[in-house]
Amino acid sequence: MDWIISDELGLTVGHLVGWGAASAMIVGGVAPYIPQYRQIKKTQDADGFSLYVCLTLLVANTLRILFWFGKRYELPLLIQSIVMNATMFAMIHLCVTIRKKNQIIRARERIFTGAIFMLYILLCCVNGSAQPDETANWLGQQSGFVGGEKPHRFYVIKPHASFIGFIFFWFTPYMDKKYFWAWTDFQSYVDCMLVFSVLGAAITYLLIEFSPFVELIGFLAVFTEAMLGAPQIAKNLQNKSTEGMSVCMVIMWTFGDLFKTAYFVIREAPTQFWVCGSLQVLLDIVILLQVWMYRHNTAAARRIRRGD
């Protein structure tokens, strides 16, 4: 039996432990990014941190929020997803700002225009298909793309002469993968996630009564989060170094994921949560092994080997 702390409030040790664990779940997910944020701000160098880590968490937590509407889980996990998304946008804003500041020669702007494409479709549906050129020109004026040099963009929109199959034939967007999630302005990242969220919400609204779809969203949410370490592992392999990555962040990842997985098991969260939590711990260990493998491949070590 729990020790009674207050008869009037009905508080027990079990209640306090539960609230403490819930608070740790909300704040603990954000804590590992504090040292990485401070390191990037101090060194004014964001090259060692992969922005795909932010993409992974934004997608995972957006899916987890959508999953909550189809299958209710504990409120602290929902709040954690909202707080994590805000944190990832803060990390992206810092990295984009610093990378712009560090440019020696001003590079051509790279932006995401998928949101403008969606707006075009909506406006054409409202205005009628007889004025596609007028709608396109209006969008161009609003976005500043008319006249002058146009920036690189993830979506490039090309008109076709036929009206057959309006959405697919009036405008055919195609992807230039090398510019995806490598935009030069913060607004593009916000727009991209806004498009993803709106499309995801619309599909979820239509299929929310279909249980296999809801379970699939839950699995994709936690599996995507479980692959959080994969972009950082790939960047470390590419650089043959972990320089610029906060080791403190990875250590906090590991302890946080261990705690989170145990929390899922104890609180009997859906199976997807604890299975993918275990995978996340495994990837954290792989990154720590990379830290040990590349421990001699740092700027200081290279200067010593050159005799500088």
TrEMBL record:
Keywords: Membrane, Repeat, Transmembrane, Transmembrane helix
GO cellular component, one term: endosome
The organism of origin for this protein: Danaus chrysippus (African queen)
Gene3D superfamilies on file: 1.20.1280.290
InterPro entries named among the record's database cross-references: PQ-loop_rpt, SLC66/Scramblase_ANY1
GO terms for biological process, alphabetical: phospholipid translocation; retrograde transport, endosome to Golgi
Transmembrane segments: 16-37, 49-69, 75-98, 110-130, 154-174, 186-208, 214-234, 246-266, 272-294
Compartment list: Membrane
One Pfam family hit: PQ-loop
Membrane topology: Multi-pass membrane protein
Protein's name in the database: Solute carrier family 66 member 2
Source organism, top-level taxon: Eukaryota
